[in-house]
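User: Sequence recovery, please. Input:
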């Protein structure tokens, strides 16, 4: 659930029919309406009717947290402004939308990427990362018909690395692993700098053990960009455990505003997170560029402690 962007799906096109501009717009409109209805009711059943993949897992956990924190009585519906659609040449399985979240009194300055994938007769929202301020979003390459070009997950043709290699490398980078040379492949971004800051801040109170890897249970997607690079979408699964340090004062850890991890934990706290990441993989060149993470959407999906 997002009270900023979060997408959905629809049931209009036939399973084998190409996606038209009219259909992508209808899917998107249907999503916005159904998403607001599910968010207002905190209904897992409604949510599962239009979301899939890691989006569904993240938002179901968000609903559970919100219910434990007292509900959603003050929910305010939202919409999107200036949607633009990018459909891969196969025109059957999935498409990308960029749009600006629009609330009652304000509109986001940065767009959200929304991926919709076909599931039988239905369309489901699979990714919804919000983009960061002060990053340049790459232009999508299109052919004469306006179709975009899909990039396979293992395909490194013309790229600094394949989308699959990016997912593996970035997961390690997110938890501070990797060689110095491997770390230079990634430009600084909000996720990794925030994670490093958290490790330093919490070290006084608890020993942190964390592991991250590509979440193989959920699909990844990529499109060719106009500069010859790729726009890659993947989901990272991160596990964290804080073992509270003994001290002269009784230390504890806590997770702010999350109903899955209420209260204070004086011995340990552990959690599982899913993190949707969108990144620009630059084209391969004599002087390699850096991969730039452009945005993310994440949530704690489970947790426990004592």
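Assistant: Recovered sequence (306 residues):
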């Amino acid at each position: 659930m997002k009270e900023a962007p979060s997408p959905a799906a629809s049931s209009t096109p036939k399973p084998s029919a190409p996606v038209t501009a009219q259909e992508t717009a209808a899917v998107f409109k249907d999503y916005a309406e159904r998403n607001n209805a599910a968010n207002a009711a905190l209904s897992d059943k409604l949510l599962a009717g239009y979301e899939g993949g890691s989006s569904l897992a993240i938002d179901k956990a968000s609903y559970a947290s919100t219910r434990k924190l007292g509900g959603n009585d003050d929910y305010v519906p939202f919409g999107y402004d200036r949607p633009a659609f990018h459909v891969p040449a196969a025109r059957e399985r999935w498409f990308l939308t960029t749009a600006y979240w629009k609330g009652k009194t304000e509109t986001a300055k940065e767009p959200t990427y929304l991926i919709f994938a076909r599931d039988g007769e239905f369309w489901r929202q699979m990714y919804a990362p919000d983009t960061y301020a002060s990053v340049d979003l790459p232009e999508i390459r299109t052919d004469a018909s306006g179709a975009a070009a899909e990039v396979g997950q293992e395909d490194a043709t013309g790229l600094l690395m394949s989308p699959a290699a990016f997912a593996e490398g970035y997961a390690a980078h997110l938890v501070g692993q990797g060689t110095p040379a491997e770390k230079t492949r990634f430009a600084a971004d909000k996720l990794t700098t925030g994670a490093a800051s958290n490790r330093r801040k919490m070290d006084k109170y608890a020993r942190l053990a964390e592991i991250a890897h590509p979440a193989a249970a959920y699909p990844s997607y990529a499109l060719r960009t106009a500069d010859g690079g790729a726009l890659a979408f993947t989901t990272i699964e991160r596990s964290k455990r804080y073992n509270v340090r003994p001290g002269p004062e009784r230390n504890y850890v806590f997770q702010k505003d999350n109903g899955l991890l209420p209260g204070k934990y004086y011995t340990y706290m552990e959690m599982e997170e899913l993190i949707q990441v969108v990144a620009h993989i630059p084209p391969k060149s004599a002087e390699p560029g850096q991969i730039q993470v452009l945005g993310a959407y994440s949530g704690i999906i489970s947790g426990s402690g004592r």
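The longest strand covers residues 230-244.
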